[in-house]
């Protein structure tokens, strides 16, 4: 919270027991759990970071997203140019 204050970022917390107030984050967290976190037994934090980095790159660069017409997310900025 101190970091956010230093950067001028206002934090808004959701109400306890109301995950629907932050549906995008909840959906992303569910996807992370189901697509890679539940599939591995990690020995170190470095191993977790490596798998997370690889998954995020694939998610942003290789995976079609139906929300933007079936394009991969990395294609969308190129289409706008």
TrEMBL record:
Pfam families: rve_3 (PF13683). One of its GO terms (biological process) is DNA integration. InterPro entries: Integrase_cat-core, RNaseH-like_sf, RNaseH_sf. One of its GO terms (molecular function) is nucleic acid binding. Residues 1-81 form the Integrase catalytic domain. This is Integrase core domain protein. It comes from Aquimixticola soesokkakensis.
């Amino acid at each position: 919270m101190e970091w956010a204050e230093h950067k001028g970022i206002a934090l808004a917390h959701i109400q306890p027991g109301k995950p629907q107030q932050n549906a995008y984050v909840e959906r992303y967290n569910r996807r992370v759990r189901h697509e890679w976190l539940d599939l591995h037994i990690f020995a170190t934090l470095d191993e977790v970071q490596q798998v997370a980095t690889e998954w995020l790159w694939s998610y942003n660069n290789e995976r079609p997203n139906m929300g933007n017409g079936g394009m991969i997310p990395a294609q969308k900025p190129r289409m706008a140019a």
